[in-house]
Amino acid sequence: MKLLLFSDIHNDFPSASKLVELSLKVDVVVGAGDYCVARRGLDDIIAALSVILKPTVLVPGNAESHEELAQACRSWPNARVLHGSQTTLDDVTFYGIGGGIPITPFGAWSYDFSEDQAKKLLQNLESGGVLISHSPPKGVLDMSSDGRSLGSEAVREIIGIKKPKLVVCGHIHGSAGQIAQLGPTNVINAGPDGIMWEL
């Protein structure tokens, strides 16, 4: 299965157009959150992405809520919005968790979760599939521009237990477009340019 992975396009319409074009070369598209900016412009950027005809699995970032994303995708038949839930495509299970984990300093507009809340949302993750998490695991592709490790302990813990084949994340722009390993698991901070990945 050939995947197109992306995150954090933040209302960047040229990036959205490029992703639409790249989607023609893959089987499944995966979006790891932050499509808009601080809850603004979500409908317009999702409309630009909704011409993607391939199955597209999306989680909310901290810039939009699960409910807002599901509502924005209501007329996009190929979109599947996940948050503490999963979907299966060609025998591959995709499990999603959105939002900023741990809680960000950005205030009321940011869609955030504590580590304890994240543990509950991740409890049904099965082994061996694809985990889509807006927030990266602690210590892996989570380094901010000022050198702080901002990833999630809960996400890291569940990866160690369930060992998904692939983790797709975003959120920390300083690590966008990078690939790392956490045990046997490939971790990709996808970024807005899109990364092709053969599963």
Continuous helix count: 5
- The count of DSSP E runs of length 2 or more, i.e. the number of strands, is 11
Report the end-to-end length measured between terminal Cα atoms: 5 Å
Q: What is the element string, with H for helices and E for strands?
A: EHEHEHEEEHEHEEEE
Helix content: 10-25%
The third-level CATH topology is Purple Acid Phosphatase, chain A, domain 2
Report the major sheet. 6 strands, mixed
Which CATH class? Alpha Beta
Gross CATH architecture? 4-Layer Sandwich
User: How large a portion of the residues is in β-strands, by DSSP E?
Assistant: 15-25%
Describe, in plain words, how this protein is organized in 3D.
- The chain is an alpha/beta fold and 199 residues long.
- The chain has one domain: Metallo-dependent phosphatases (Purple Acid Phosphatase, chain A, domain 2, 4-Layer Sandwich).
- Helices cover 22% and strands 24% of the residues.
- It contains five helices and eleven strands, in the order βαβαβαβββαβαββββ.
- The protein has a six-stranded mixed β-sheet with strand order 5-6-7-8-10-9, covered by helices on one side. Strands 4-3-2-1-11 form a five-stranded mixed β-sheet, with helices on one face.
- α4 runs parallel beside α5.
- It is globular and about 35 Å long.
- The N and C termini lie close together (5 Å).
Task: Provide a short characterization of the protein structure.
The chain has helices spanning 13-22, 42-49, 66-72, 115-122, 153-162, and strands at residues 2-6, 28-31, 56-58, 79-81, 85-89, 92-97, 130-133, 166-169, 178-182, 185-189, 195-198. It has 199 residues and is α/β, with parallel strands linked by helices.
